[in-house]
Amino acid sequence: MKEYNKLIFEISREGRVGYSLPQIDVAERNLEEFIPKEFLRDKSPELPEVSEGDVVRHFTLLSNKNYGVDNGFYPLGSCTMKYNPKINEDMAALTEFTNLHPYQSEDTVQGALELMYDLSGKLAEISGMKAVTLQPAAGAHGEMTGLMIIKKYHEKRGDFKRKKIIVPDSAHGTNPASAAVVGFEIIEIKSTKDGAVDLENLKAVLDDEVAGLMLTNPSTLGLFEKNIKEIADLVHEAGGLLYYDGANMNAIMGIARPGDMGFDVVHLNLHKTFSTPHGGGGPGSGPVGVREDLVDFLPVPVIEKNGERYILNYNKPDSIGKIKSFYGNFGVMIKAYAYILSMGAEGLKKASEIAVLNANYLMKNLKEHYNLPINEICKHEFVLGGLGKEVNEVTTLDIAKRLLDYGYHPPTIYFPLIVDSAIMVEPTETESKETLDGFIDAMIKISVEAKEKPEILKGAPYNTPVRRLDEVKAARNPILKWSKE
Amino acid sequence: MYPYIPNTQDDERELLSNIGIDSIENLFEDIPESIKLNRRLNLNRPMSEIEVKNHIENLARKNKSTDELICFLGAGAYDHYIPSVIKHITSRAEFYTAYTPYQPEISQGTLQVIFEYQSMICSLTGMDVSNASMYDGATATAEAAFMACDNTRRNSIVVSKTVHPEIRRTLKTYLYFRGIEYVEVEDNDGVTDIEKLKAVVSNKTAGVIVQSPNFFGIIEDVTEIEKCVHENKGMLIMNVDPVSLALLKSPAEQGADIAVGEGQGLGSSLNYGGPYLGFMATTSKLMRKLPGRIVGQTEDVDGKRAFVLTLQAREQHIRRQKATSNICSNQAINALTAAIYLTTMGKKGLREVAVQSTQKAHYALNKLNNTGIYKPLFNKPFFKEFAVKCNSEIEKINQELLKNNIIGGYDLGKDYPDYTNSMLLCVTEKRTKNEIDTLVALMEGIR
C-alpha cells in the first residue's frame, strides 16, 4: 500500500468544507450589537479546511499505522490487554445512554442510575469491599481518591500527624505520584529479591506517622504476596490503612478478594480487568471500594436506592468532596457492566484461571531462552530479565523492537525497576494456545538472532510504518504543534 | 464455554502437562487458604449476548434522552451537533483497542492524531503548547492550579465564584488534600468582582482562576484581573469554552498563562457526564511543568517524519513522586473525537456553530424578556447561555416543561442562594426557532 505521510493541515484548501448546518432561522443581528468588539477575536483560529471525504480518508489512513488488540497479540505486562468485546461497544452506544445530559432530572435517568448502582454492587462483591464509587476516571485517579479517603479517615479521628505513605520500590509509578498529589510524604521500601514486601524493612518504617501502605497483589513481578495477612496486621497495628492497587486484579477474580486479605481501600481498573478498551491512552475508569467504616468518606454524589427509585445523594457531610465533574466515565462503566453480565461469576473466575495458566505456559517455554530472575509459579504475568549483557550487548529494547517485525506488540519493558532489563509479559486469558506458541517461537528466534546476527536486532524494526525514532531530538528541540511555514 | 476465552479443555490439559502440573488449582497454591474465597461470587450466571442485550436495553429504555426531549440545559455539558463521521472513525478498532503509544513505530496513528489535536488546541487558545488531554475540564483546572503553585512556589489559589460550581468543588477537594489555600471571590452582577479580587490577590497568590464565558454564560472582561495577577507575579488561569473561541478573544490574547477547559462540546456525546475531555495548554516557558502526555515531532533512522511521546521526564513512570502529576490514562479517544470534530467543522464550521448558538441564545432571551414574566438576571454580554429571573420555583417550571418533552434550564439557586428562582438556559446551533418559540410559549403559560 502507498505510504501516507501528510498532516491534516497539509491537505487543507481554503474554502473547502466538511460540514453542513441548517440555515439560521432566527433573525440575525450584527454580532457587535450584543458582544462588544473588544471581546471578539480579530482572526478566526487556524483550523483545517477539508471535505468530509478528506476527513475520513485521512484518519482511516492514520488508523492503519496503529496496532490494537484487534490487530494482534499485546502481552503488555500490568496493562491487561485482553480482547474488548463488541457487544460492550454496542451497549455503550445506545442513544438512551449517550444522549443523556448529566443534569437531567432523576426521573428521566433511572436506567442509567440503576446500571451504576448495580455495577458498583457487583464490583463490591468482586473486590470484597462494602461500597464502591464509580467516579474516578482512571487508575491513578482512583489512587488519588483512595488516598484522600485515607487522609480524611485519620483526620476524622483527630490524628493529623500521619503524613507518610509507604510504597514498595516495585510499585507502579502512579503510586508514589498519587501519594504526592494528596500531599503525603513517600517512604519507599526495598523489596525482597523476589519482589515481595520485606517484612523487616516494613517494620522499620512503621510508626504513628504512617497513614498507609500501597500494594498491588499479585506484585508487579506477578507473584502473590504470601505474607499479605501479616503485612495487613502490621500496618493495622501501627494504625495505618492498606491500599490495594487493582492493576493486577485479573489474576484473582473469584479466587481471592482484596477485602478478605485485609485491604481497606481498593481501586479497580475497568479498562484492564473488565475488558473496556484502552483507547490509545484512555478513557479508563478506576472505581474505588472501601471497607465499612470508610463508606462515609466516599466522594459525592453517592447513588442510592430509595424504595424503587434511584437517587444521587450529595448530602454526605464526611465525604472527601467532589473529585471530578459529574459522576465518572459513565460510557466506560456500561462496557464493564456488559462484560460482567456476559462472564458471570463462573466466567470471571475462569478468566483469571486461564490468564494465570497462559502466563505460566509462556514462562515455562521462555525461561530456557531468557533470564528468569524468579523461577516459581507466577500469577497472570511474569518478568524476564532480558538476555544478559554477555549476549552481544543485545538490550531489552532491541528485543522489543525486533518483536515488532514479527507482528507482536512487545511486552512492557524496563519495568518493574527492581529487575534489570525487565521484560514483563502478560498474555491474558483471551489468547489461544496457537497465539502463545507463535509468540514463543518469535521470542526463541530472537534469542538465536541475538547470538548469531545481533546487528539485525540493533537495527530493528524494519517492517513498521516508521523505524526507530530519534527521541533525544524530540525532547531537546521540542516541536509540539504544526505551524505554518 | 466462553466466547472470549479460546482455550478448550484439551488445550488446558496440554498447557498444564507442559508446565508439569496436574490441575489449575495447583497454580493458586501460593494463596493462603485463609484468604481464599472458597465460594462462588454472588453474581449473575454467565449471560448470552442476547440476554445481555435485552437486559441493558431494558435499562436504557428507562431513560429519556435528548432524542426524545428538547434540551435547553447546558451548564458545562452541551448539546452541540455531532457529525456522523466521528463515530465511524472513533469506532475503528486500530484506534480504540490500542494502548498508550509507548511503542511509537506501531502507534503513529494515535501519535499523529494527538499531535494534530495539540496543534488545534493551540490554535484555538492561542497558547504555545498543549498536552494530550486530561480527565475533564474540572480536573484540568485543578491540575492548572497545581502547576501555578509549583511554578511560583506559592501556596494559595484565588478562584472567582463565577467559575462552574462543579469545577470549584473539584478544585476545593484537590487543593485541600494538597494543603493549598483556596480563596473564593464573590461575583458582582454576574461577573467577577474586581475590587474584591484585588483585595485578596497578593504576592502569596500562585494563581487566579477565571472562567469566560463564565458559569452564567457571561463573557468576563479579564483586563483588570490580568493586570492584578501579573503585578503580583501570579499566574492567570483561564477556563474557556472551546466553541466560543471561534469568535471570542483567545486566552493568550488576554494574557493567560494556562488555558484549560471542558472539551466535551467538541464532538463528544453528553454520555450522562462522561467520558469528557479536559484540555490544557500553556506558554513555552511553562512547557516542562505541564502534566500528562505530550507528543512531539521527530525523525526515524531513515529521516522520515515521525511522532513520539516526549518530555517524559515530567511524568510519573519516570519521576515517580516528583512527577508534575499522577495522571497516566487520559481521555485519548475524546481527544481523537475533538480532532475529528475540529477537522470536520473546520475554520468556517466552528465559527458557524458559535455564531448560530449565540444568535439563537440572544433571540431566546429577547423572546423571554418580551413575555414580561422572565427578566434577564444580569445585563452583561453573553455567549450561548444566559440566566433569567422567574416568578416561580425553577423545579416547578422544569416539571411543566418536561411534561412537554423539554429539558429546562439549570436551577441557579442550588449553588447561588442569592439567585433563587433563577434559571440558566443554553441554546446551541441545534435548537430551531420553532423549538425556542415553543419553550417561550410554555414558560409564558406557567404562572
TrEMBL record, chain A:
Its cofactor is pyridoxal 5'-phosphate. Residues 31-299 form the Glycine cleavage system P-protein N-terminal domain. Its EC number is 1.4.4.2. GO terms for cellular component: cytosol; glycine cleavage complex. Residues 351-452 form the Glycine dehydrogenase C-terminal domain. Belongs to the GcvP family. C-terminal subunit subfamily. HAMAP family: GcvPB (MF_00713). This is Probable glycine dehydrogenase (decarboxylating) subunit 2. It comes from Fervidicella metallireducens AeB.
Automatic annotation (TrEMBL), chain B:
One of its GO terms (biological process) is glycine decarboxylation via glycine cleavage system. It catalyses: N(6)-[(R)-lipoyl]-L-lysyl-[glycine-cleavage complex H protein] + glycine + H(+) = N(6)-[(R)-S(8)-aminomethyldihydrolipoyl]-L-lysyl-[glycine-cleavage complex H protein] + CO2. The glycine cleavage system is composed of four proteins: P, T, L and H. In this organism, the P 'protein' is a heterodimer of two subunits. Belongs to the GcvP family. N-terminal subunit subfamily. The lineage of its organism: Bacteria, Bacillati, Bacillota, Clostridia, Eubacteriales. This is Probable glycine dehydrogenase (decarboxylating) subunit 1. It comes from the Bacteria. The keyword Oxidoreductase applies. The keyword Oxidoreductase applies.
